[in-house]
Amino acid sequence: MEEYPTETQIILILKEKGERSLQQLSDELKISKMGVLNHIKRLEGKGLIRRIQKKGRVGRPYFLFSVTEDSKENLANSSSWMLSGLISYLKDTGNGSLVENFLRERYDQIRLEYEKRMSHLKPEMRLQELVRIRESENYFPILRAASSGTYELQEFNCPIYQISRQFGVACGLETKLFSSVLDMDVESTHRQVDGHGVCRFLIRERFPIK
Q1: For the segment 121-160, what is each residue's pLDDT rounded down to a tens digit?
Q2: What's the domain range around 120?
Q3: What is the domain-level CATH number for residue 171?
Q4: Are 182 and 127 in contact (CB under 8 A)?
Q5: What is the pLDDT of residues 185-210, one digit of tens each?
Q6: Which of 10, 20, 95, 185 has the most CB atoms around it within 10 Å of its CB?
């Protein structure tokens, strides 16, 4: 996570771990509390973070910080309100099938684009290339080895959040996309549209990687 800008790191920490105090953020980021506070003020100005006042046992109240609901949309793109309106309009007027058909066709195109970049790679390199692709698309991915032959992919941002929360088929297509280009079994265990701070995928080898 260290490779991301500090303000992005703050958002990712809050999305993954929930409410955090200024001291906790300072400890995790390894920068001063004043430095963290300066970043937080800018994020608050953008509507991405909110502060919650808590009563301490003794002394003055203290604050906890968390991401706002709007942050999921603001992180996606600056015109998300227009996209949301269009999607809602199509769904409310009985034209939701147009969106679903578009998504299926779009994911077929994405699969071909991913395969073009990954097909020549050895199996163990495809996962790393997938992470690089998703980084370039602003999903903020992190890949970890979960156990022998199993990997955990976490994505802390969802650029298609507006679509996914109204059309769950998008999440299913994404899981299918990963499975196809990696030639591995992929299971979606957490989704941001379900209230989780992260989208989490378990990726398992179908055959031992040599």
Answers
A1: 987 799 999 999 998 888 888 899 888 889 999 998 888 8
A2: 80-204
A3: 3.30.1380
A4: yes
A5: 999 999 988 888 789 999 998 765 44
A6: 10
